[in-house]
Amino acid sequence: MSERIYSWGHERRFNAYSNYFKKEYGARIQKVSIDAGFTCPNRDGTLGYGGCTYCNNEAFNPSYCKASKPVAQQISEGIDFHRKRYRRVEKYLAYFQAYSNTYDSLDNLKKIYNEALSIPGVIGLVIGTRPDCVDKAKLDYLSELSEKTFVLIEYGVESCYNTTLERVNRKHTFEQSEKTIIETAERNIKVGAHIIFGLPGETRQQMLDEAGILSRLPLNNVKFRQLQIIKGTEMARQYCENPEIFNLFSWDEYLDFFIEFLERLNPEFVVERFTGEAPPEMILGPRWFMKRTDQILTLFEKRLEELDSWQGKKFNAIE
Ligand code: SF4
After folding, report:
1. Region 160-170: what's the mean pLDDT?
2. Which residues line ligand 1 (CB under 6 A)?
């Protein structure tokens, strides 16, 4: 291990999510996923019916997380599920994960968020949504709430390039993401961004350049994942018809790419995740993600050590 203490206050070579919570709350915090039965404007016809071409929310939903169950029940079952694996965890964040979790009336949202916060052990909310699914009233409410409890809004940005966003049928622009991230941060709400690497048409250099673009935004938290082609999606159909338009990362390629990306990334951003895992039976194409998450993390940190690399090593150089 490196003995250097980095600007984020510990010797791990990236600003890791688990360390952030240990520092802020003195303990490991576990997220419990919830499917509160929301939909999304790209599915209910407001913007479109088909959704983003890669979207299949089932691929990332844990088994205890079903929209048919009340939110409180999903959280209690989620806590039981995690307690078996991490006995010492006592604090949880309710993670509204599936679809667009601010896409409802403010009154309904208040009811659902408060139901989650009433469960013993739940110390805050993580709310995944689209950048076009919040407005002033919702942000003002979440700003008030965040004075009393942990609130993080995680926006699906997915790409900094509008041509890519159009290609995958996102139906919002990068400028909308930027504007919403700024408006959220201005209200002192913690704000996160989710990005997918390997979307069709993007070059390696374009993806590396996203580090500089994102680094200028007032983000607290960032999550990344490699593109996976999920069976049953529009993208799976495109992949079967024209596999040559996809350039899916092998594990080795992704590891080296991500380390190069990380060196350019703002060291103040907490990195929550850098790969994604859908169940192997749902994936078409390369399946290196069958490695377990802890194995992936070990390989990643070993590689950072070998290369004497760390988050933000080249951040100032690209500003
Ligand atoms: S990825 Fe998100 S925004 Fe896109 S269709 Fe699925 S739920 Fe809607």
Report:
1. 97
2. 40, 42-43, 51-52, 55, 57, 99-100, 130, 156
